[in-house]
Design brief:
Blueprint (H helix, E strand, L loop, with lengths): L18 H8 L5 E2 L31 H11 L6 E4 L2 H12 L5 E6 L3 H9 L3 E6 L9 H4 L6 E7 L11 H9 L6 E5 L15 H6 L3 E6 L12 E4 L2 H10 L7 H12 L1 H24 L3 E2 L6 E5 L4 H10 L2 E2 L10 E5 L3 H14 L2
Parallel strand pairs: 1-11, 3-4, 3-5, 5-6, 6-7
Antiparallel strand pairs: 2-8, 7-8, 9-10, 10-12
Helix pairs in contact: 2-9, 3-4, 3-8, 10-12
Length: 358
């Protein structure tokens, strides 16, 4: 078989070992997964008995009508500004299919979310990046010098994953004003519900103002629905129409649509779980300060910390102790990203950390 050459640059996604496997190999009673920024409190309990009333034999609503209506109201946008995906990763795939030909390029931050890179590679596009500054934030204006006539997409993750830092809203708009209308600016707000900094502003207002700006969101994080794979984009209807051409029919399951709708209505539950995460983040700051470990103040549900030793080896040391963390980020060889779980889990993590850095 003659496969497309650009696939040489792409590797299959390798999830870490399962919790069951780790328990067996290291003879552990409990394994805590703090590697994928999931919400330990899960979704609102109101979704629990939904499965009894589902029409399993009928395809789901292709237009995601009910959720679309409620979300449009919540976000104060017209309902034709929305499109849903099987996770927001599927929307990154759709955006790449719509815009990227061989030889085109994307511009993004390094480090940032891996799907921007893999989907660009699958389209045989090139990737240009700016690196973080001393304050672990990005100077977006550095992107300007990377743009050329082949640039099709700019991805900005706000808050950034894995750094957890945010871009000032005034700087964001100043930057967008300088971007040609031919380049799509994707602002990925997967973690926006966790932001505590009051100067932060979602970029949804910019979507209404600038036709080439769009925002990605997900129900996987603060709403605790990662298992159901549902995310969405807010974008100009003309661009949504292009995405519709490449969207797989019925891509969001009936159960995902209904659960996301119930979760959206119970915002109170989501906000309470975010509050609990805040207080656990404060606990983590105190403990990391005591241990004199460098870390980046976070506006998301994870913390990057510098253990000053090989992060892949650290991953292994934590796994042996029952904690699955994430290392190996580009430019950050000695840093690990730790998702915020319950206080109990994080107390256990701190004990494991003391052993790992000994
Ligand atoms: C920045 C960012 N964008 C998008 C996603 C994908 O989320 P989803 O579960 O909606 O595919 C993630 C998941 O980790 C993420 O960190």
């Amino acid at each position: 078989m003659k496969y497309r050459k650009c696939l040489n640059k792409v590797s299959p996604y390798i999830p870490g070992k399962s919790e069951e496997e780790i328990k067996r190999i290291y003879n552990l009673d409990k394994v805590v997964k703090i590697a994928s920024n999931e919400n330990p409190y899960g979704p609102t309990p109101k979704i629990k008995d939904i499965s009894n009333n589902l029409r399993y034999e009928i395809y789901p609503d292709n237009y995601v009508t009910e959720l679309r209506k409620n979300l449009a109201k919540e976000l104060n946008v017209k309902d034709n500004f929305l499109l849903f995906g099987n996770g927001s990763v599927e929307i990154i795939q759709m955006i790449s299919r719509v815009l990227l030909d061989k030889g085109d390029n994307i511009v993004t931050e390094l480090p940032s979310f891996s799907s921007y890179f893999s989907e660009a590679n699958i389209q045989d596009a090139k990737i240009k990046t700016i690196k973080y500054n001393e304050d672990y934030n990005f100077n977006l204006d550095e992107m300007l010098s990377l743009l050329d006539e082949k640039t099709k997409i700019i991805y900005i993750t706000n808050p950034n994953n894995p750094l957890g830092t945010i871009i000032d809203s005034r700087k964001m708009e100043d930057f967008i004003k300088k971007i040609s209308n031919d380049i799509l600016v994707v602002i990925d707000e997967a973690y926006f519900e966790f932001v505590r900094d009051t100067s932060y502003k979602s970029s949804i207002d910019l979507v209404k103002k600038y036709d080439n700006v769009c925002v990605l969101r997900t129900f996987s994080k603060a709403y605790g629905l990662a298992a159901l794979r549902i995310g969405y984009i807010v974008a100009n209807p003309l661009f949504i129409n292009e995405l519709e051409k490449v969207r797989v029919p019925f891509n969001v399951s009936r159960i995902s649509q209904q659960c996301a709708n119930i979760a959206l209505k119970d915002k109170d539950f989501m906000e309470k779980s975010v509050e609990k995460i805040y207080s656990t983040i404060d606990y983590m700051y105190q403990e990391l300060d005591k241990l004199k470990i460098e870390y980046i103040k976070t506006q998301a549900n994870f913390i990057m910390m510098n253990l000053r030793r090989n992060s892949k080896q650290c991953e292994e040391e934590f796994i042996k102790r029952g904690y699955i963390v994430r290392g190996g980020f580009p430019l950050m060889d000695t840093w690990i990203r730790v998702s915020i779980s319950t206080l109990d889990d994080m107390q256990g993590f701190i004990e494991a950390l003391k052993e790992v850095i000994k």
